[in-house]
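PROTOCOL LOG
Step 1. Enter all chains and additional molecules of the complex.
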Amino acid sequence: MIKKEKNLFDLLSEKPWDQEQSAQDNLHSGKTINLTKAHLGLRGIITVSIIFFSLFIVTYADRMLLHDWQKMPEPKLLWFNTFVLFLSSILFHRAKNRSDLQEFKEVKNLLLIIGFFAIIFFIGQLIAWKQLMEQGYFFNSNIANSYFYLFTTLHVLHLFGGLFFLKKVAQKLFDKNSKTLAIQSSVKLCGIYWHFLFLVWLVLFGLLVNS
Amino acid sequence: MSDDFPEREFGIKTKSSEVSDGEYASSREEEHIESQIPEQDLYHPKSFITKWIFCQDAKVIGIQYSITAISIGLVALVLSWLMRLQLAFPDVFFSMGPAAYYQFVTMHGMIMVVYLLTALFLGGFGNFLIPLMVGSRDMVFPYVNMISFWMYFIAVLVLVASFFVPGGPTGAGWTLYPPQAITSGTPGSEGGIILMLMSLSLFVIGFTMGGLNYIITILQARTRGMTLMRMPLTIWGIFTATILAMLAFPALIVSCIMMTLDSLLGTSFFMPAMVQMGEHLKYGGGSPILFQHLFWFFGHPEVYIVALPAFGIVSDLISVHARKNIFGYRMMVWAIVIIGALSFFVWAHHMYVSGMNPWFGFFFATTTLIIAVPTAIKVYNWVLTLWRGNIRLNLPMLFALAFIITFVNGGITGLFLGNVIVDVPLSDTYFVVAHFHMVMGIAPILVIFGAIYHWYPLVTGKFLNEPMGKFHFWVTFLGSYAIYFPMHYLGFIGVPRRYYEMYNSPYIPTSAEGLNQFITIAALVVGFAQLVFLYNIISSIKLGKVAGKNPWQACSLEWQTEHVPPQHGNFGKNLPVVYRWAYDYSVPGAKEDYIPQNVPPSEVLGAKVEKT
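Step 2. Run joint prediction.
Step 3. Record the structure below.
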């Protein structure tokens, strides 16, 4: 988890008026956690998203127990989409490694491919929707369907958020004035978000398959 | 604020200094990266629009939040007058009909809790005070901070728009329980409820952006020497409340999304099978109780999202104006953190009459009563801070004292209602109305007033008018007791809340009618007294007595800025360095009765360290 200088209990039991403590405190830099603010911001977003999805999953688990639940078939295409997302997660890992080695040319190509994959994933999800609707599984015909459409929509919205940041990273990459470390750090953070997107999808997809 | 920008003359630095960190020095990778990437420069506004409208300066954003919140709060105040007139003098002045009454109840509750109190404490005071109090130039993500305000502003507009759609705003009660909230027959079930849900969702998204800013600024952007345990309690309160909000608001947006879908697309997340006028509705199988759990999982922490900043602010007001360090600083911090943590385990005490396993009720009654322990510690510490203090009975102090009394009052009725067996007969009576208005209506509002009287000299450089303030205080304080004390009695004799009118009920004595009229008159008087306050705020910008630097002789950093009011970039060329906590008042041996946080020990050699 978050790296701290001190654990929470030590921190909260400091005596700020104590002279020894005071001498130590005067040297404190004013930072609590050894992470960049962008990294912390990302963690904040991911934490809130996890709570957001967890609450949906809690209602899902609760709602599933009621008698009117009818499981819906999952189109084969979803496995393909999962694979696409998995692949882009791997590619991002590679991009991060490349950017650490300062091979930005390859990073540029990788990011373009990842963006392309994200769009393929989105189109794949739309086709999966279409297939389901053709079989008569509409949004409101059963609660299981409602959850499927809701989860996929929310996940894709998170993906769009990711694409927005991917665009920003790409801009940084193509901008000649940006600093190497700034690029590396933003490639790394965007990569973390991409892994997060994949994991969220894995959990949601697992729920849909196993319920 | 004046128009010249000092940062043009000297390149403003956003981070204090890169001096070695002594014991806290770290060679870890991230730290390395941070020091290599130059901190993003402050955005320097060039035009009127970027300076006052689409502004990225947290101080201006704080003022924008406050103005918007107070404006929409006035709408809610007027709604409460209309409700009170209906209850006391039905059909005398106008006839509103039950639908309008429910709409007013709903909008009054929702606006006051979410759009006024939450936005004012965290968005208003949070934005203005966090960077100043922790010694930072601005929030860490100023652009996101600006977006946060505009999301809030749009959320307010959407909420207001619901007054003008066909069917009017929703009348489902501020808890918006399904199925009734989206079933025809409830006022506003057509457009009003959708707009309400959308507005809440926007509010949550906007707030999450702001909240990330508050948390990360407090954690990472403090000035040199400002450890967490040297922060003023105001910041601790806002910090903990923001964390609560980040964890609790997702529950609100989740329930909003699912209810919107139930309403618009006919899903059955919360909607059970229903028969309406002999016809089966398309819904079936959903669980309304599920919504209640989600809603109160947000709703109870929400109470503390409002209360914790109030606790923090009032601690600072008491300490400054009693010229004493806060009694038991660490205990105060712990109490804030513990209350915050416990607030996630008490939500179902709002649902005792919804049908629960009795053991479930027992569990929640226990956790609810446990919260009274840290809360009582805080109250004792406030009182002990006052004990033998050099109390200056000025306006912030008066409001702080009024807060303590009111909060204890509302807290004690909370002990009644926290017990299942006492709550069941009192449920949905005016006793509950009296309880929550005392504890999370009047008490936080008194803190807000105290805080405005306290920090107005910092925001504008002028004092608020004192006689007008005294008038405002006494009418508000005594008036709110005149309003809410009798309501306890009404509740005991069983007068139900949320009823449009009730005088034909045989069990309600005629004295209740007289009492209701008394309450209404008191409410009108208190409401009009707020106009004096508003006039005071507006007129004092021009006419107020010039305050000068640090008029209250306070220790915390926001008063130690180079200019009053603080300018863009907050502090002058160098950020202040902190050498002590925020409560060095009346230190024995010191020349003056306060030592600001940024005064090094070498300048106050005689001062003795207190053993607390």
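Step 4. Note key features.
The CA atoms of residues 140 and 216 of chain B lie 7 Å apart.
Chain B has 16 helices and two strands.
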